[in-house]
Amino acid sequence: MALASVSKVVLGSIAFGVFWVMAVFPSVPFMPIGRTAGALLSAVLMIIFHVISPDDAYASVDLPILGLLFATMVVGTYLKNAGMFKHLGTLLAWKSQGGRDLLCRVCVVTALASALFTNDTCCVVLTEFVLELAAERNLPAKPFLLALASSANIGSSATPIGNPQNLVIAFNSKIAFPKFLLGILPAMLAGMAVNMVMLLCMYWKDLAGSSPDQLVANGKQMEAVEEGLASRTPSPGQLKSPKLTGYSSPLMTEDISTKHPWFMQCTEERRKLFLKSFAYIVTVGMVIAYMVGLNMSWTAITTAIALVVVDFRDAEPCLDKVSYSLLVFFSGMFITVSGFNKTGLPGAIWNFMAPYSKVNSVGGISVLSIIILLLSNLASNVPTVLLMGGEVASAAALISPAAVTRSWLLLAWVSTVAGNLSLLGSAANLIVCEQARRAPRNAYDLTFWNHLVFGVPSTLIVTAIGIPLIGKINV
């Protein structure tokens, strides 16, 4: 895309700068309005400055991603009430040797789960749980939140369903699921291990944590933690209040008067077992649907509505748990990024560097990786993939057919790991940040600088280690 007019480039850059400043410093003294309002402000500025038209602004809002986030939050609430976190906590705490061992387990579980459930899904579901897990053991929240966000991004790189940009790449490149997985899996496993080691090195002293005996005792308290997260059930008086918020869906709370007659004939234990089993079964079905290529957003929405219907209750308490401010933030971000792309600056950067970015040499791959890292953090990774995918593949086609496949996989790997560079690098980072800040218990504010101190070295090292491993396994 060619550069727009000077006025459009300047005004678009100003609007994007407002978004960047408000995202990095959500409580700046001259405008302490927060990230969500800051994203809306920058989106409005893009329209006022005529960088993007109102119709284009609406079109730039990625409804499939918003639908996926919304449905994931609903499904996460039902899984929480079905006891998933109690079992996950038991798994993480089983024979744990302290905070360092626990951090490693969080990294591995998150990375592997993100490859199947998507990185955004894992971050939505696991953030509050990780905060509880750390607080229960008197461990600092920061290393565990960094482990969650960074491992989710790295793990999601391995499959076409791991994140939105991989979906775009898989669709445009026509690379089959097994070939995509095997092409990136070695890099993902190596990157996960290196990221984990770097976290341990940086926070070794902070993770001294509890003794094994204490962890065994704490493990017996996981059910209490689960109840604390999920059973903030309102009083009868609160049920009549239209202002009722802040408690989770009453999936496990008995109110037989609202049940279907079939449930009324069952014992309490059978009803609970049925609802828990159904929550797990439909979630597994959701993952299988992802793997066979069904639409991710509508699959998640279908799963969420199935859980709501089978619960046979008013869904408002469950829907109150959805972080609507996060959805508004993403809407503003989509408009802002789309406007910034229309200035032509991201395209100009690529056009200038393209001759030096050939995938048939170490130098070319290095330059290409640097461009992807920068653009993914300036213009977001999905627009970067849309912008660069065809150009990179066309350049690789002049070398060999195998180079085309490897170029697509390199783009998937680098654009995904680039999300760990800064807090604004990926949606998963922002989800962890906002979910942790708004958590009803043990809330923690993961700042831009806290993330950057770890994110920059981790991203550069993990990216460099993974690149030589891309495409080494062929099918």
Automatic annotation (TrEMBL):
Chief location of this protein within or outside the cell: membrane
Segments for region (Disordered): 227-246
Species the sequence originates in: Urochloa decumbens
Subcellular locations according to the entry: Cell membrane
InterPro entries: Cit_transptr-like_dom
Lineage start: Eukaryota, Viridiplantae, Streptophyta, Embryophyta, Tracheophyta
GO CC terms of this entry: plasma membrane
Keyword Cell membrane (UniProt): yes
Residue ranges of every copy of the Citrate transporter-like domain listed in the record: 24-418
Protein's recorded name: Citrate transporter-like domain-containing protein
Membrane topology category: Multi-pass membrane protein
